[in-house]
Specification:
By secondary structure, the chain is of the alpha/beta class. 39% of the residues lie in helices and 21% in strands.
Length: 449
């Protein structure tokens, strides 16, 4: 049954870290609209911040992030000066209107920053925004960057969660993706952050990489589990060379086929769950006491541009080129060009150039898609109570899918529409059934599994 589903639903679909998805953003949401959304924040609002560092000292071939390689630090230092300017401008617009609940440093490689710049960036943020006393600070860490001084700097800015990219420990796989990183390096960083009081460690693993086999995936998972991470993210490699040209460095003949990818996913997931971790959505795992697992059990799990999260803030402000902000009113994205970004923010401007304002229909569909992605279910009663007539219209579509589709994408269980267990690995394809933009869009996406 699962292989039949894989054949039917193993299509290319969005990852649904937002709805509508980024390919449908347009220039109608610009800096003027973005400013209005910032100014509309209210005093009691809690906000999250995302800071993008668009540089790496080595480019990994598998990466689909907005980043560029540099061997010199001056472009990074110059970029930071511009980032400080954007932080000051945005912070000035939200002063007194919201407090920071969470910060996520992403990239690129945030840990490429010199230790003194890590500390300075943390200070600039706290001087520009009001932080809640228990605000959480998450940092994406590249183990090859790390030394004692950087570990001390991250502790000084209050890092509470460290997320380490592992991908695969097999040397042949690492060479094929230009990411050589030993287990001992990774362990040293995990030990280093924990010795400095960091309360949560996440490891990112990938399946579907060039030269990966079920044996290499099993070995990597087994080694990763010895580090006892609090969370594991198990992502399928997204091969999108039409979007990220450096992925052409990966010979497609080296990539496992759909059936092998699916087998790698199932094998890895089973090994992680067997060690006591709880499965969260389609690609995360957490220890039972972790806040992500608690949110999943409580039905308060969310999904944003960093993946699954227990962050319940309605407002996410993205800082840096290509960063996306989320508001009650919609989404706004900064320009991707670092040079254009710098020119704009250095003059005190806002860098937003595209986005989308949410219609009521968007909100209904977005709620259904998020609940499917997070809970594999949604309540018909909740749908209608939240959205009224618009929810009722979508309820008819859900009922038709549950009652008439022979593959049983959705089943009706009491007042709930539930994705059956055998269909859950393909929930992105199920979510696409509720995406009114999907069939009319021209964007190309990664494989569903």
């Amino acid at each position: 049954m699962r292989q039949k589903l894989a054949a039917r639903l193993g299509e290319n679909v969005p990852r649904y870290t937002s709805y509508p998805t980024a390919p449908h953003f347009h220039a109608g949401v610009d800096a003027v609209v973005y400013r209005g959304w910032l100014e509309a924040l209210e005093g009691g609002d809690e906000i999250s911040l995302y800071l993008h560092i668009p540089y790496c000292d080595r480019l990994c071939w598998f990466c689909a992030c907005h980043t560029k390689q540099t061997r010199h630090y001056e472009p990074v230092a110059a970029y930071l000066r511009s980032l400080y300017a954007e932080i000051a401008t945005v912070g000035g617009l939200v002063t007194g209107k919201g407090r920071v609940r969470a910060v996520h440093f992403g990239g690129g490689s945030p840990t490429m920053l010199e230790p003194e710049d890590i500390v300075a960036l943390g200070s600039v943020l706290r001087n520009s925004f009001a932080f809640l006393p228990d605000a959480r600070i998450s940092v994406e860490i590249e183990p090859n960057d790390m030394d004692e001084a950087r570990l001390d700097a991250l502790a000084e800015i209050g890092m509470t969660r460290a997320s380490l990219g592992v991908q695969d420990f097999e040397p042949k796989v690492q060479k094929a993706i230009n990411r050589e990183q030993s287990f001992s390096q990774t362990k040293a960083v995990v030990d280093g952050v924990r010795s400095r009081g960091v309360e949560s460690v996440n490891l990112d693993l990938l399946y579907g990489l060039p030269h990966q086999t079920r044996e290499s995936v099993s070995s990597t998972v087994a080694q990763a589990l010895t580090l006892e991470p609090d969370r594991i993210a198990l992502f399928g490699y997204a091969h999108v060379p039409w979007f990220k040209k450096h992925q052409t460095m990966i010979d497609e003949a080296w990539l496992p086929g759909p059936a092998e990818r699916f087998a790698q996913l199932q094998l890895a997931a089973r090994a992680i769950v067997d060690q006591g971790y709880e499965a969260i959505g389609i690609d995360h795992f957490a220890k039972p006491g972790d806040t992500l697992a608690l949110a999943a059990r409580a039905g308060t799990l969310h999904r944003n541009f960093q993946g699954y999260t227990d962050d319940c803030c309605e407002t996410l402000i993205g800082l840096g080129p290509s960063s996306i902000s989320q508001f009650r009113q919609g989404y706004a994205q900064n320009m991707p060009s670092t040079s254009e970004y710098r020119c704009t923010v250095d003059d005190g401007g806002l860098a937003a150039v595209r986005g989308i304002a949410l219609s009521n229909d968007d909100r209904v569909r977005g709620w259904i898609i998020e609940r499917l992605m997070c809970d594999f279910a949604f309540s018909a009663i909740d749908l209608v109570e939240r959205f009224g007539e618009a929810g009722q219209r979508l309820l008819l579509q859900s009922s038709s899918m549950a009652l008439h589709d022979p593959v049983r994408l959705l089943e009706l269980d009491g007042d709930k529409f539930v994705v059956p267990a055998e269909s859950r690995p393909f929930v992105r394809s199920i979510a696409a059934r509720f995406d009114k933009y999907f069939e009319t869009g021209t964007a190309r996406h990664s494989a569903a599994v």
